[in-house]
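Q: Structure for this?
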Amino acid sequence: MSGGAKLEVTVAEVVEVNALIKRFRFVSRDGAALPAFSGGSHIVVEMDDHGVRRLNPYSLMSDPADTSGYEISVRRDDAGRGGSVFMHSHVTPGMRLTISHPLNFFALDTRAKKHLMIAGGIGITPFLSQIKQLGHFGGRFELHYATRNRDVAAYATGLKSAHGDRVNLYYDDEGQVVPLAEVLTRQPIGTHLYVCGPKGMLNWVRKTAAAAGWPAQSVHFEEFLAPGTGLVFSAQLARSGKTVTVGTHQSLLEAMEAAGVDAPYLCRGGACGQCETNVIRCDGTLLHRDVWLSPAEQAEGAKIMPCVSRFEGKTLVLDR
Amino acid sequence: MSKTNFPPSIKTRPVYAELEPRPGTAHVIIADGEGAEAVAHLLAKVPDRALMLARTHILYTPGPNGTDQWAAVLAFGAAQAYCAPTIPAMLPRMAKVVAEAHMGTQFYLAGTEGLIGQAEREIMMTGLPFAAIQKEHRGSTVRRVQCVHCKGITENVATDPFKCSHCGLNLFVRDHYSRRIAAFQGVNIDAEDPGLVPAAVEKFK
């Protein structure tokens, strides 16, 4: 079975954090401890949305030392594909869910002397678990957290009161912006930079850091992409001998799964590389939307990440 | 491309490339012996040489073969330049320069493996990823070797095998390298048959 070993959990708690964000706590059904994880890990939550199977990755925000349960925060995206809306409107305490084991593509580099964190909006969640992890061994950090306004600044008050000067808050509607260039130049040598937030913020931080002489190896980022919508297309699966039609709101991976093909996956957000699939023939254009393949690989067109990428054209034949 | 061609070896044996200018808020250049030539080559490639030199601190020491190009290094006109008589004499200053650096500083190491390795270790200890440190080998290929038995380090090893300067064992010089210790490994060559030691060959010059 693709996606790795699964955990059977019960929803223990659902808390409305603010108008946009809800927090969910999961505990194991048999009362046993859940597997340990490291700060920055995520889980994939499986949802049965009235017959539509949805698998969305969410960062764990709880203390990595607490194996009695996992907590995630979900921001409702009414314009999204429906996963977050399902979590907000249908997931209630006592409900049974299946989740993946925690996976970490956004781990702290603990060789760093200091950790500089830049968060945008719901991108705060992996930092919540990382900050708790650092608390256990006294690691130094500095957080810059930007949100649209005070009302949607989830966990900002708690962070500020627990960590004081280490936490810096910015509100877009009050005209506040992270003074990034200044923040980057005053960091001691050996600092690692972590950024999680919307794509625009990621690009801005990575570009500014590179221009300021920060090595790419010291800059870590996490971006989970929603598969996105597009035109209906079909794909031939050479190994399975099947042809699938991918709907407007469906991903190529989801279409393969719906056709009974056990395709590999882990993050379902274009980040981990697990679902990488060889393209046998392509008469048309591959619409690469992942952050896994290099620009050169994307241009070459010999591989596709079916969890987020699409196709437009006449014929697409995949080695799956 | 390195100016020194080392024969292909095992994965832990360090490899070197040519120094390339990178954008940075400060530039720390650490070199010994013929490494000065690599620095000259680097500076020749910089688009705004005056700007880079105004932000550059050079630490230099003559090489283990006696090559002393301090006059040329001084003539580069860096904001700060310092010459130490030996690598051990340079280490305290190097430690202070590295510890007080900020992110955005570029590090360029040039010269022999003993100097490059010890500077890399100092920088790496701060948490800066080793892959972000540029290194170009020039000059002598003598090695800094740690005896795996007594842990003592012998500098400027030229022959293989050689006698450990601490415990006196006859050591075979491996290509197995430790970034943490900044040294190659030396392993006793006559453990099974004491006294049966192959003739020493001058492998490193």
